[in-house]
Specification:
40% of the residues lie in helices and 18% in strands. By secondary structure, the chain is α+β, with helices and mostly antiparallel strands. The chain folds into two domains: 89 residues; 191 residues, Sortase, Chain: A (Beta Barrel). Strand 7 and strand 8 form a beta hairpin. Helix 1 packs across helix 3. It is globular.
């Protein structure tokens, strides 16, 4: 009987040892993945800064060369006049901003980069990509490398040839605070008041979007009727469809927001997963602020 007890005790110790070993291995894997994802997020956040430094260096060189040419041509012209003339002549005719130029440069690295999204004083500050489907950039970064972070990406069906559409942009809700995790903070009205605008820049446009709604949702079953499937509204087919989307978004908002949109306003919708229910979603809708 004692031998049997000893054998059982030995088995229990072995099981405990195995469980502890597995637990330690899983903990190490989690820690490694956590810091790996953090590093990748920092790389994306620092991408514009690196490009900005490069652009500033190029600009300084161009201005320097222009000044030298002016001195040769004008001869005794004053340095002050030359500098003023150079700045005026070097200003882009199409009012391109530095951010627009940076997006153009990024597109040379990856043609799928269609813009840059930023919400000031938040972690949301990333390139936006558009693939041929809505799967690829869920698991790849802006360098087209495999990544659990994925990318911030525009719905593949968005048609750039249709004016005044809805830019439906997705991003993962990651526990490490990167990508669209901070979007869920818009559940708080005070957070919205501190961050009322979204900035979205493409190679052709650099604009702010005023938030008009923030709401919880989920992916609905086909059998469910009279529900707001915000994720279906991308390319506006009619004024009625557009107005209905705005009305539903305003009604779904977690708190009242005075700003709204009228037919013809360009819209942007940021969407991420939310785990308050199965297949839960959280979305923030904004309208373009016309200059």
């Amino acid at each position: 009987m004692k031998e049997k007890t000893k054998v059982n005790s030995k088995k229990i110790y072995i099981i405990i040892y195995i469980l502890l070993t597995v637990l330690i291995i899983l903990s190490l894997i989690y820690i490694i993945n956590f810091f790996s994802l953090k590093k990748e997020a920092r790389e994306q956040s620092n991408l514009l800064n690196a490009i900005q430094i490069n652009e500033e260096q190029k600009t300084e060189k161009v201005v320097s060369n222009l000044l030298e040419e002016k001195e040769v041509i004008v001869g005794e012209a004053s340095t002050q006049n030359i500098q003023t003339e150079t700045i005026e002549n070097s200003e882009p005719q199409n009012k391109e901003t530095e951010r627009m130029l940076k997006v153009k440069q990024l597109k040379e690295e990856n043609a799928d980069i269609i813009g840059w999204l930023e919400i000031e004083n938040t972690t949301i500050n990333y390139p936006v990509l558009q693939g041929t489907d809505n799967e690829y950039y869920m698991t790849h970064n802006y360098k087209k490398e495999k990544s659990k972070n994925g990318s911030i990406f525009l719905n593949a069906d968005y048609d750039w040839n249709i004016a005044r559409n809805n830019l439906l942009i997705y991003g993962h809700n990651l526990g490490n605070g990167t990508m669209f995790q901070e979007l869920l903070k818009y559940e708080s009205e005070s957070y919205y008041k501190q961050h009322p605008k979204i900035r979205f820049t493409t190679a052709e446009d650099d604009s702010e979007y005023e938030i008009i709604s923030a709401f919880k949702s989920r992916v609905y079953y086909k059998s469910e009727k009279n529900v707001f499937r915000y994720y279906y509204f991308i390319n506006s087919k009619s004024q009625e469809e557009y107005n209905q989307f705005v009305k539903n978004a305003k009604n779904a908002s977690l708190y009242p927001i005075e700003a709204t949109a009228s037919y013809g306003d360009q819209l942007i919708t940021l969407s991420t997963c939310s785990y308050y229910v199965e297949d839960g979603r959280f979305a923030v809708v904004g309208k373009k602020v016309e200059k």
